[in-house]
Amino acid sequence: MSTDETNDLETPEERDDQNGEQGSEALRNVTYLSGMYQNWFLDYASYVILERAVPYVNDGLKPVQRRILHSMKKLDDGRYNKVANIIGNTMQFHPHGDASIGDALVQLGQKELLIDMQGNWGNILTGDSAAAPRYIEARLSKFALEVLFNPKTTNWKQSYDGRNKEPITLPVKFPLLLAQGVEGIAVGLASKILPHNFNELIEACISYLKGEEFEIYPDFPTAGMVDVSRYNDGLRGGAVKVRARIKKIDNKTLKIVEIPFGKTTSTLIESIIKANDKGKIKIKKIDDNTAADVEILIQLASGISSDKTIDALYAFTDCEYSISPNACVVEDDVPKFIGVQEILKHSADKTVELLKLELEIRKSELEEAWHYASLERIFIENRIYRDIEECETWESVIKTIDKGLKPHVKHLMRAVNEEDIVRLTEIKIKRISKFDINKATDYIQSIVDEIEEIKVHIANIIPFTIRYFQSIGKKYGKGKERKTEIRSFDSIVASKVVVANEKLYVNYDEGFLGTSLKKDEYLCDCSDIDDVIIFRKDGTYFITKVTDKLFIGQNIIHIAVFRKNDKRTIYNVVYRDGKAGFSYAKRFNVTGLTRDKEYNLTKETPGSRITYFSANPNGEAEIIRVLLKPQGRIKKLNFEYDFADLLIKGRASMGNILSKTPVQRITLKHEGVSTLGGRKIWFDPDVLRLNTEKRGDFIGEFVGDDQILVVLQNNTFYLSNFDLSNHYSDQIRIIEKFDVNKVWTAVFFDADQEYYYLKRFTMDGNAKMQGFIGENKASKLICLSDQMYPQFEIKFKGADADRPVEKIDGEDFISVKSFKARGKRLTTHEVGKIKEIEPLVREEDIEDAEIVDEANSVAEDKNALED
Questions:
Q1: CA distance 223 to 125
Q2: Which of the 8 DSSP states describes residue 190?
Q3: In 248-295, which ranges are continuous DSSP H helix?
């Protein structure tokens, strides 16, 4: 019956009742959107976290990676397989399509640990993508086959369609997660674990199993440098800084030879060009010659400092950036945040557990083999097989064999069952006829020996695991040495290295300052991130950021680019307190201010005014002439004042009274010299930079044209100035303040002449690197001494081994010559060893040393007082 017909038969009242019942039923079955969102979103989030984005702590793999490796193991026959075939085979286990499988497979291959590759797999340095899957091939590496798979210790589950089995996790016996690293974004959380060094992970596992402390830090396939001071064990809140390695070819050419992890040469060059376009750096040309190794050549514009450009590249481009790790893993189907040390400990413990399980499985297999070999021997040796010749039924055969075995099986490890007897009946007559009792005994004994050995390993599972890790390191550790250098990075102040890409102008009459006032008075070059400090005649001063146009007020007496923490720029000031007060003189520096906040260098009495002002970049103290206003009985109306007599104090100090009488005029009489003394310089070997903060080794006190001597491990030297922006090689042998009169003594093997030579010389060179033992790279430096009267001892070998040890007085042996001279041959005999011994001491040196010690003591007391 149709609906229309049904409605025709119902009365209006019946229809109302029916509609009401249906409405109530509909309300009872409503699922509110909030409930749907809560349940469905939670299911989706859990799925993404557990099945797609976050690695499992047990094997360090995401599901797609695990399925790829499992699929490759099933296909493995020792030969390469087309990647297209691997992808197709993996789709039996992974329900998310071929694109995700292909991308994950390429990423696994580029880590160069688990997969042997053939063909064009892309380039992590340039960012070039891999060839199409039909063109490239892959197979599991020997390391993967040894460490990742064991079906006997693997827990299995049904694949997504129920047609196949796949591993829940692979039985990995290595901290794979830390070796490869991982990055994944799930719903509500993310995981970012940085890769670590293969050999260091093995050493850390061994240290942990021995109960020793250990540390592990990231190591990247792109090499470069990393600062791990804030690594925080890879947990949230930590960060590492990564840097490109930049070499200085000459003063106009830089070469990037290693790039930061996560960047490519293309992205790096883009960031450099962008910084150049913004005026942060100035480059003339950039070429990318990268092939197997990174080589980006940067040609600098004329007049640009190469050292400052290196700093600017780190400050304004992707040559340096920060990575924030976030060690999130899945453990027991729950996402957890644990540090990399905890991950390594978990992996080492899991390796112990797996190795013990493998030993126990092997022991069970051997016990079963021993049981059957013993049973077979009893069966044949006692000719029990003859007893079944008269048996007519299968049951009687089983009973007869069982009866024949009973007198001989008391020593077996377990009872004989029917399955054992059935196996005995399957022994061929040919095997029985050729049975050798001695061979059978030896075989059984070999099984017993192996079982005993396994029992020892199980009882000493920790030493066994340590030997396993050592074996893995010996087999596969070659070629996996650390690539990324761990360094402490110095903090680069952007304002100190940015190129002065703007010109600053000022209009004193109207009180405006800015880079767009091109018709007004030019002030100085600056950058768009600089601050400027401004002083007015009323004693107020402030700092503000460089901008296009800014009103700064009138009566300006000084404007300059402000450098934070600059303690050497000293301001010499005379100000009048109030309209008719005393005149005060003060010296101060300004190391830091709050931007756009106004300060006052006077006592802030109304009517105060600056009557003399000078800014001195190196703490110079001039002499001024002060002319007083004629007043009363004052006879001396002018006098001289030397700012050198005034101590440098804080910017808020009141100063010293210059005159109680009103001052008519102040003029400069004589330019001053620095009262700050030399600049004390230290060299920090961790960051390979100079500093004035007492970090590292003290180099000396520098003024004017003083220079630094740098001697490198390759037996070259050069001179540099003491600019804090200088960059130095990590191959430094000696770095010290240059003394033009200092005599050096070198003992070296001359590869051209094939004899040992001694030379005394001064390193009177220049900024160009120069060798002091010749041009032949095979020449070898034995000793380099700066002693005034050095001595050396020569021991002989070979045919001359009986010759007595010879002592050489360096000063008597040869006079001081140029560093380019060859020197004098030490001996024609076969040399075994040459070493420097205690230098000679002259009486006049003792007297000089006492005078120097006394002078140093006075200087130390003075420095302590100044500090």
A1: 10
A2: E
A3: 265-277
3-state secondary structure 354-367: HHHHHHHHHHHHHH
DSSP string covering 493-519: -HHHHS---EEEEEETTTTEEESS-TT
pLDDT tens by residue, 142-186: 999 999 999 999 999 998 888 999 999 999 999 999 999 998 887
**Residue ranges for the chain with pLDDT beneath 70:** 1-44, 47, 50-51, 495, 842-867
CATH architecture for residues 240-323: 2-Layer Sandwich (3.30)
Token pair 């893993």 is at which residue? 329
Is the pTM higher than 0.70? The answer reads yes
The size of the chain, in residues, is: 867
**HEC states along 762-804?**
ECCCCCCCEECCCCCCCCEEEEEECCCCCEEEEEECHHHCCCC
**Which regions of the chain carry the CATH code 3.30.1360.40?**
240-323
Work out the widest C-alpha separation in the chain, in whole angstroms: 155
- Pairing type for strands 648-649 and 583-588 reads parallel
Strands 816-818 and 755-762: parallel
Token duo for residue 566: 């600059």
CA atoms within 13 A on the CB side of 742: 14
d(CA 589, CA 649): 8
The 10 Å Cβ neighbour count of residue 730 is 11
Annotated active-site positions, please?
135
Using the CB atoms, write b or e for 828-865: b if 16+ within 10 Å: ebebeebebeebeeeeeeeeeeeeeeeeeeeeeeeeee
Query: Does residue 650 contact residue 571 with C-beta atoms inside 8 Å?
Result: no
Q: How far is residue 575's CA from residue 534's CA, in Å, rounded to a whole number?
A: 16
Going by C-alpha positions, the residue among 618, 620, 536, 538 that lies closest to residue 572 is: 620
Report how far residue 169's alpha carbon sits from residue 353's, in angstroms, rounded to the nearest whole number: 14
Residues 6 or more apart whose Cβ sits within 8 Å of residue 735: 683, 697, 699, 708, 709, 710, 711, 728
Residues facing residue 734 across a β-bridge: 711
Exposure letters 578-608 (e unless 16+ CB within 10 A, then b):
eeebbbbbbbbbbeebeeeeebbbbeeeeeb
What type of residue is 714?
Answer: N
Strand partners, 781: 748
- C-alpha 401/C-alpha 388 separation (Å) is 7
pLDDT in tens, 271-289: 999 999 988 898 999 999 9
Instruction: Report the distance separating Cα 390 and Cα 386, nearest Å.
Output: 9
